């Protein structure tokens, strides 16, 4: 009877202690289990482009179990906590062994901290040297085991473990110390990452590389002894050099990454390709080497079929100060120079104002107070529209703009996705020569529209953004005709033969901006070079600076050449004599009497006496402009008879152009 009472009392005491212990554990206040992680910007395949530190400059990266090499898990548990999967947060075997060794030797010989207890210490940022601290960790460890499963506890350890300096967590450690993700680790790399959290500051590879190497080797030998890795692997990996310093965190697409971060923290998946982005950044850096440090450069590369931006370079060097590298020049408004001309010609083709074989005048002309001139100051008379676009002549495109109406050109820009910045009131004729502010990204979208056969599709750079709906801006035939004209241009030296890339160069007023934009059968790209502050760059021409880089960018983007498309069935492909009569010549007014140069007659031989050569006209509409061999001699002439001041002797072509664009010319010889 007495024994029975004693047994009942014992069981009651055990139950009481158990219940009180459970209540004590259940009453444990659990610290915050969700911790901030570094914002990450990733490419279309999940490759890390750039990451940002969290508060206090800490690197702490999000990590999922499938991102870790299984070998690391094996080595960590075998080295730190063999019974992790079976104990309840506190390992009684390890605790008794540690206590016995401490009593026997009078000092701590081995620790008894489980991985769960280490997580408890990391959560509370507590110490391990005092018994009260150890007891608190044991209580929190038991509480954690009651609320989390083993994988969740292990995930907390991998996220919070210290790895020296401002590095927390396995993934940040692998990137900083090894320069790689932890998904594929050698035994030596895994051993180093197991060893560092035990003494993160005294084993930092950048400050104590020998200590880091020795700690790593101890882990390797222990893993071989425990059968986790072969002894041969442990011996060979001990010969591998330990890291001697920090590896730079990925810094690809810094400007685009900043744009993504501005939308909020967390992970942002972009449409960029890390491989292409790295290639385009290398191209920009190489192109700017040895040039004026105040120069900047931007590149945008996109898939014009999907509308996805594949690479975006805002400057050659994000950290450059003289070149204001922090300014994203893909989104800065600049004058596009002649790169808007293809749109003008395409609109003229679509609306029946002209055909590539239509003849148009490149002669002096005045529209009210506006008198445009060509870039080189010379005039070529009557020539095909196709050739006028290839030569990027100003006067023909202004004539077409006047016929279209600048407001219609502005509307087509907006329909293409361009938000033009216009100073002053309504758009004028100078719009077609670059008299408007646009961004490189917008210009790439405009050229993507022409590459798609006249369908505008908004470019996108975030995978979370839905694909836009295409909208028709131009008909297919007009878009193809412009692409055909531009693809027949001779490419830069060593860039291949014509017909593969349709491209257009441009230089803004004062040589402030050098542009080249173009496309092949799959990709569209744009290159801009200039100074971010808008000051002139003497001698800068889009064809000289930017065009070779465009061809190289498109060449790097494709595994195989992507041919330009064939003409749509409705395209009118004829020679000039086969054109309908209204399309044979642009801009002649039927009501205006034909301009005739009646004197001097063609082939005349005249004596140059210094007083000038008499010129007589019939028909036409004043004012008249007088040219000799394409050079302007006089403008604003209103009388049909005047003296022409012809310098020098020899053969010369004398031309007179009226205000309607009609021209008369004769070839004479001066003696």
TrEMBL record:
Highest taxon above the source species: Bacteria
Q: Which residues form the Glycosyl transferase family domain?
A: 56-223
Q: Which InterPro entries match?
A: Beta-lactam/transpept-like (IPR012338), Glyco_trans_51 (IPR001264), Glycosyltr_51/Transpeptidase (IPR050396), Lysozyme-like_dom_sf (IPR023346), PBP_1c (IPR011815), PBP_C (IPR009647), PBP_transglycosylase (IPR036950), PCN-bd_Tpept (IPR001460)
Q: Which residues form the Penicillin-binding protein transpeptidase domain?
A: 297-509
Pfam families in alphabetical order: BiPBP_C, Transgly, Transpeptidase
Q: In which pathway does it act?
A: Cell wall biogenesis; peptidoglycan biosynthesis
EC numbers on record:
2.4.99.28
GO (cellular component) term, any one: outer membrane-bounded periplasmic space
Name the chemical reaction catalysed here.
[GlcNAc-(1->4)-Mur2Ac(oyl-L-Ala-gamma-D-Glu-L-Lys-D-Ala-D-Ala)](n)-di-trans,octa-cis-undecaprenyl diphosphate + beta-D-GlcNAc-(1->4)-Mur2Ac(oyl-L-Ala-gamma-D-Glu-L-Lys-D-Ala-D-Ala)-di-trans,octa-cis-undecaprenyl diphosphate = [GlcNAc-(1->4)-Mur2Ac(oyl-L-Ala-gamma-D-Glu-L-Lys-D-Ala-D-Ala)](n+1)-di-trans,octa-cis-undecaprenyl diphosphate + di-trans,octa-cis-undecaprenyl diphosphate + H(+)
Instruction: Provide the alphabetized UniProt keywords.
Output: Carboxypeptidase, Glycosyltransferase, Hydrolase, Multifunctional enzyme, Protease, Transferase
Q: Say yes or no: keyword Protease present.
A: yes
**Which BP terms does GO give this entry?**
peptidoglycan biosynthetic process; proteolysis
UniProt lists the family membership as follows: In the N-terminal section; belongs to the glycosyltransferase 51 family. In the C-terminal section; belongs to the transpeptidase family.
- What name has this protein been given in UniProt? peptidoglycan glycosyltransferase
